[in-house]
Amino acid sequence: MKISYNWIKEYLDLNVKPADLAEKIERTSVEVDDVVKPSDGLKKIVVGHVLSIEAHPDSDHLHICQVDVGEDAPLQIVCGAPNIAEGQMVIVALPGSRIANNVKIKKSKMRGVPSAGMICSLQEIGFSEAVVPKEYADGIYVLPADAKPGDDVYDYLGMNDSLIDLDVTPNRGDMLSLYGTLHDLSAIYDLPVKFDQPAVKEAGEPIADQLSIHVDESLAPQYKMRLVKQVKLAPSPMWLQIRLWNAGYRPINNVVDITNYIMLKYGQPLHAFDYDKFAGEDVYVRNAKAGEKLTTLDEGEHDLDVNDIVIADDKAPIALAGVMGGLDTAIADGTTTVAIEAAVFEHDHIRKAAQRHNLHTDASQRFERGVNRTGLQDALDAAAQMMDELAGGTVQTGTVVAADNVPAPAVIDITMSRVNAVLGTDLDQAKVTHILETLGCDVTADGEKLTVTVPVRRNDIHIPADLLEEIARIYGYDELPATLPTGRMTMGELTTSQKLMRATRHSLEGLGLNQAISYALTTEDKAKMFLMQPSEVTKLAWPMSVDHAVLRMNVITGLLDDIAYNSARKVKDVALYEQGRVFYREDGTDRPSEQEHIAGAITGTLLPTAWDAPAQPVDFYQVKGIVAAYLKDMAVNGDVTYVANTDMPEMHPGRTADILVHGHRIGFMGQIHPTIAKKFKIGATYVFELNLQAIIDMPKQENQYDVISRYPAITRDVAMLVDNDVTNDQIVELIEKRGGAFLQSVKLFDVYDGVKVPKGKKSLAYTLTFQDKHETLVDDVVTQAFEKVEKRLQDDLGAEIR
Amino acid sequence: MSLKDKLNELHERGLAEIKKSGDLKDVNQVRVSLLGKKGPITEVLRGMRDLDAEERPKVGAFANEIRDDLTAALAKRREELENAVLNAKLANEAIDVTLPGTPVAKGEPHVIQQIIDQIEDLFLGMGYQVLSGPEVEEDKYNFEMMNLPKNHPARDMQDTFYITKEILMRTQTSPMQARTLETHDFSKGPLKMISPGVVYRRDTDDPTHSHQFHQVEGLVIDKHITMADLKGTLQVLAHELFGDKFDVRLRPSYFPFTEPSVEADITCFNCGGKGCKVCKNTGWIEVLGAGMVHPNVLKMAGVDADVYGGFAFGVGPDRFAMLKYGVDDIRNFYLNDVRFLNQFTKKG
Question: Spelled out in words, what is the top-level CATH class assigned to the domain B111-341?
Answer without folding.
Answer: alpha beta
